[in-house]
Description:
This protein has 4 helices and 7 strands, in the order βαββαββββαα. By secondary structure, it is of the alpha+beta class.
Amino acid sequence: MIIGKKLYRTATTSDSMAWAKEHIHDAPDGSVFLADTFTHAKGRQGRTWSVRPGQLLVTFLLKPAQFAVYTPDDLPIRLNQLNMALSLGILEPLKSLGVALKWPNDFVANNKKLGGILMHLVWHDNVPKGVVVGFALNVNNVFESNDELFATATSLCMQTGVQQDMRALY
C-alpha cells in the first residue's frame, strides 16, 4: 500500500468521501482525493464539518488485499487498528506543536479541536472492497472571538502564532 499512488484533484466537490467511494472499482489502492473547496463536508455521526480557508483536507482510498481473508469478527478489530495507526501517524509530526489525540478520532490542542479523522468501509456484494479515509486539520484558519467555534476549535496557526506552510503538509 502506497498512499499517493494516484492523485485525483478537482476545484470543488460536495463530499470527498463520496467522491472516493464512487471510484472504489477504478482507483488504485492508495489513491488520494483533493479538492480546493467542499460544499458539504461531514464529520463523525453525520455532523457538518465547517470548511474554511486555511484548512488541510485530505481523503484517500485503501484497498487492502487482506480484506479477502478477514472474518466478519476480525473486521472491526482490524479497522480499529487501522484507525489507531493512521491517527498516530498524523499525530507524530504535530506533537511538537502541542497537538494531542482524543480517541478515537480527534486532534486537539489546549482542549480545543484542531482536526479529526474519519473512516468509511465500502462494501460491494456483501464483501468489503475498501476503506475511505478522510482527515482535516485547522492549519492557518483563525477563529475570532465572535465566531461560534471560538470556544471549541483552534488551529496550528493559533497555537504557534505562526502561519504554516500548507504545501509542506501535503
